[in-house]
């Protein structure tokens, strides 16, 4: 591949749907969108099992990072700017931060994300407010609406 590659923005979000009185979680889902000035890839799916909202956010980022890696097999990608509203997830995957998840599952997911994006020359991570992550949030919430 030659020339300038794509500069991508990967937005991700996880969603946990609670039962009556918001007491116990009933369902979880993920959403992500990959953009390069326009939407290139979107993903949304429900999860059959989940541990916590942080784990759901990690799963959303893993799915989005894998989508970027798949795109990079046939398009040159020069940069990926990862955006999400889960500060703990962003801090854990950002190699410039000194944050290590406390359990093996989350550590494995950090490795998966970093490995998926390893061939991209520039990767940045930023925690954003939900308003800057609306499409990923809508995609994560979609499976809940379909199942209600």
Automatic annotation (TrEMBL):
Residues 23-141 form the RNase H type-1 domain. It comes from the Archaea. InterPro entries: RNaseH-like_sf, RNaseH_domain, RNaseH_sf. GO terms for molecular function: nucleic acid binding; RNA-DNA hybrid ribonuclease activity. This is RNase H type-1 domain-containing protein.
